[in-house]
Amino acid sequence: MAAAEFWYEFASTYSYPAAMRVAALAGARGVALEWRPFLLGPIFAAQGWRDSPFNLYRNKGRYMWRDLERITAAAGLPFRRPERFPQNSLLAARVAVALDGEARPEFTRGVFAAEFGEGLSIADRERIAALVAAIGLDPDAVLADAESDANKARLKDQCARAAELGIFGAPSLVTGDGELFWGDDRLEQGLDWAAKHSGSTAKP
Amino acid sequence: MAAAEFWYEFASTYSYPAAMRVAALAGARGVALEWRPFLLGPIFAAQGWRDSPFNLYRNKGRYMWRDLERITAAAGLPFRRPERFPQNSLLAARVAVALDGEARPEFTRGVFAAEFGEGLSIADRERIAALVAAIGLDPDAVLADAESDANKARLKDQCARAAELGIFGAPSLVTGDGELFWGDDRLEQGLDWAAKHSGSTAKP
Predict the structure, then answer these.
(1) pTM
(2) How many CB atoms lie within 10 A of CB B35?
(3) Is the predicted ipTM greater than 0.85, yes or no?
(4) Which of A54, A57, A184, A186 is best to mutate for the B interface (most B CBs within 10 A)?
(5) CA of A21: how far to CAs of A184, B34, B97, in Å?
(6) pLDDT tens digits, residue range B167-198?
(7) Taking CB atoms and an 8 Å cutoff, what residues of chain B touch A166?
């Protein structure tokens, strides 16, 4: 079956519409999706950025917020700009990595909807606990698991793998045959590619 | 009538497919297009870049070349990566600014086809002269006009206006009501916007 990895960062603005749209787009094309939360911070730091490029480059940042407003309006998604950007996404990423199956995308959508749909803080421990509870899981158990050494290591490995794949931004889509597509605006193209090239020799 | 400004830089890779596609896309939507060549160099320099970000950020650059390969293949455009990137686009930009009417887009498409379709140098004076001759104009007269003080000032003014508009990359589309759309992948969206909002109070 055709497959693709969906790489996203909870602090990333364009990951919001992508996370809300990607499951339906993949389903329509028969593409099985792996949800891969990761952290962009180490990748940005490696190229000398200590802040989001949208803060470092003012015109690009101004454009991004307006673009996101237009994109979410066109997709029928609520949008509210959080006071702080980028947010600390470490706890959210650890929780997402700790969750399996459908719980991961469900939690992911909940976090993005809170962050960019309602403009809320996701660095907040109580908020993350509430978002875990909202998908029917026990927040204490999930948070304990998320902050275990084993799970912290899983997230670190995931970030190292993102760097190995040449990922430099979020969201990114990696197809079964190793093609990289960057950006919410490449989801359709990337998933079309994944569907079309599923017959090729897939990586194990 | 609906209108939009198409801002492009001859050294910019994504300006190539955009320049080849934009006239048909605008025509289909009844949008009148102003072709606006400019230089990204001063804008990049103002934010501390002394080279293309695709050279400064290696993974981003590697991605861009592969992405461009896929985009041109999908659009049925020839693609050959030039040996040198970015190229000195000053003379090409001066010539484009000096040309009026249909001569400007015709020359523009000729330059991009040579640069990224055939992988040729566009910094070369003889090549630019040949591209002027190819659209039926006298190269000596056009180059003299292009390098006059008045025309150099026109290009400088154009670059200053790009910065005023908040343009930070190429290609960019600016609609009659002042919306900015960045990237070859925003052409359709930007032109749709221009067509839809043509009835609004346009700027003089």
Answers:
(1) 0.93
(2) 20
(3) yes
(4) A57
(5) 9, 34, 42
(6) 999 999 999 999 999 999 999 999 999 999 98
(7) 59, 62-63
